[in-house]
Amino acid sequence: MNTTTYDNKYHYIKDLGTGGFGRVFLAKEDVSEIFFAIKELKDKDPLAQAGIIKEIKQVAAFRHDSIIGYITNFKQDGILYLVMEYCEKGNLYDGNKAKILNANQIIDYIKQVALAIAYAHEKDIIHHDIKPANILITENDKIKVADFGIANTGGGTRPYMCPESFDYEYNIVDDPRTDTYSLGVTLMEMLCGNNPFVGKTHDEIMLMHDSKNFPIRHLPQWQQNIILKAINKIPELRFQTMNDFAEALELRQVPVFLNREIIEAGEFAEKLERMILSKKWLRITKFVEEAILRYPDVVNILSVSGKFYLLQNKIPLAKKYYEKALRLNPRLEIQKELAEINISLKNYPIAISLISDHLHRHPSDYEAYNLLLQCYYDTNRYEAGIELGKVVLRGNSADPILSNNYYLCHIMQNIGNAVLPETILKARNNPFIDYNMGVCFEDENELSHNYEEKPTLKSKLLFADYRFYKLQQAPLFFLDTHSPGVYLDNYKNYILKFGRHNYNVNDIEVPGGSAVSRRHCLIINTKDDVWLYNLNSTGTYLNEQRIESKAQIIGMNTLRIHKTVYTITTDNKMLL
User: Which part of the chain is CATH 1.10.510.10?
Assistant: First the structure.
């Protein structure tokens, strides 16, 4: 057999290139005397050959001037060959290496590629391997996009692959913005002479993205803008379609898409932030629900909604909206908020990692230190909590929240031996410390806890949230439903204790014998911020929902302990 003849009609001329798949060579067909490029698959594995056949099927249906045309295929000696159009001027990689292309040619070529890939996307085909070597140039300077062999697979060539390609939880197979990124890297390489991601680890590439440290500063500003838009590590901030990419190249600028709805969403989010500061919880709820319905994919709306629900301890909703906001903008700084969510879910290692990341950027955030202290306290790492408290309180000794929680770590570290706050703290006059000291110094005949079995001492102590840093007195009104029209009292205590009848440590004694815990639950009562805490009791119900840890009291509420039901409000007019 003539070794330079293939399929008895294609005469070998010369090699055009090689790759992991094998080689591409130039051949002339006997009868027509037309030149063709033939791709030879090195691997004889039927599965590998099936992948190449898939490429034929993917592109065979295309009818686009800028997408390579496939003529036929054949097998010879067990090797699969693909016959396709021949592009006389080679590929962009070779042209760029030879420095025969100018900036205007490059821009025109990339625009042609963008329009060709836009056509493929309309056919639900995502290329996944756009790079200079796969962009061919014809004799009349037209572009032909080749190598659709891994289309819709999520594969690619590492230095051209988008950051989310390395996130196993992100589905890139169906996301056309992966091609946008690859074409952006190709444009950068063509204009700058090299691909800065070659030889870099994923972490190094991400660092370059975070610092925007790309070798493009010598380029005209409009070219820099287009590259930065195309290769943004956040898919939602790239060109959303290849047609948008092509339009930017045509106009030589990144169009500013003025969207009145986005402006309105930003104004709405600012309004919600101000409302949250006012603590008008019932009114805010309606506005948050409206905002989510109107702007379901706006990051600042999602972020402020997450904040609102986190402040109400509605963890599933807070988690839902923060995570969606983070998917839309991975650079969103919500590590502290996510840490608080993970503390509620008892994911302490994750919470500590998030807090550490936050404190690295915001080292004077005492609320974050309090969250870290809570992680140590909840996981019984009292020594670590004490060490943290010593350091933080050294610069903020009057902090009432950190002082209380530091005191709690000492109590638990010395369990069984009551610790006076004066021995470790410079100042007291703190309702949280007063409460916790009262638990520690209970009369032996009125102990609400045990040291070796449940209910434990820790279950009756109160770790203070930083939201209570500034306490403002506010009246709290109760109605005993067993005696309609009769007020129990107008309470102004910051901490209101409920427990079994005949136990004098409580502010409100609840009938029911052993069905009611000795120290059953408590209410933290501050202006516009009232909370119910269950203390590992026999059962505390707010509006007939059992409370496991804590819940916010907003508006008119019913509190049930055993068979006793109270109506609670901060406004006595609501009881009339």
Answer: 92-251
CA distances from 180 to 150, 168, 203 (A): 16, 20, 21
Residue 315's φ and ψ, nearest 5 degrees, are: -60, -45
Classify residue 402 by burial, with Cβ atoms within 10 Å: 0-12, 13-18, 19+: buried
b/e burial code for range 475-514 (CB count within 10 A of at least 16 → b): ebbbbbeeeeeeeeeebebbbbbbbbeebebbebbbeeee
* pTM recorded for the entire structure: 0.63
Classified by CATH at the fold level, domain 471-575 comes out as: Tumour Suppressor Smad4 (2.60.200)
CATH 3.30.200.20 placement within the chain: 5-85
For the stretch 402-440, pLDDT in tens is 999 999 999 999 886 778 888 888 766 899 999 999 999
DSSP β-ladder status, 495-500 and 508-510:
parallel
Name the pairing type of β-strands 22-29 and 35-41: antiparallel
Whether a cis peptide bond, with omega within 30° of 0, leads into 159 is: no
Q: To the nearest 5 percent, what fractions of the chain are helix, strand and coil?
A: 45, 20, 40
Query: What pLDDT shows up at residue 342?
Result: 95
Name, in order, each residue with C-beta under 8 angstroms of 393's C-beta and a sequence gap of 6 or more. 399, 402, 403, 406
Average pLDDT over residues 11-36: 86
Fold for domain 5-85? Phosphorylase Kinase; domain 1 (3.30.200)
CATH number of 333-460: 1.25.40.10
Contact at 8 Å (CB) between 436 and 407?
yes
> pLDDT tens across 469-514, in order?
988 887 787 776 555 444 455 566 799 999 999 888 898 999 999 9
- Among the listed residues 7, 45, 129, 147, the single catalytic one is 129
Report the topology of domain 92-251. Transferase(Phosphotransferase); domain 1 (1.10.510)
Which residue matches tokens 């890139």?
Answer: 172
77 in active site: no
> Quick check: helix, strand or coil at residue 251?
helix
Q: Where in the chain is the domain with CATH 2.60.200.20?
A: 471-575
- The helix (H) or strand (E) run that includes residue 59 is helix 46-60
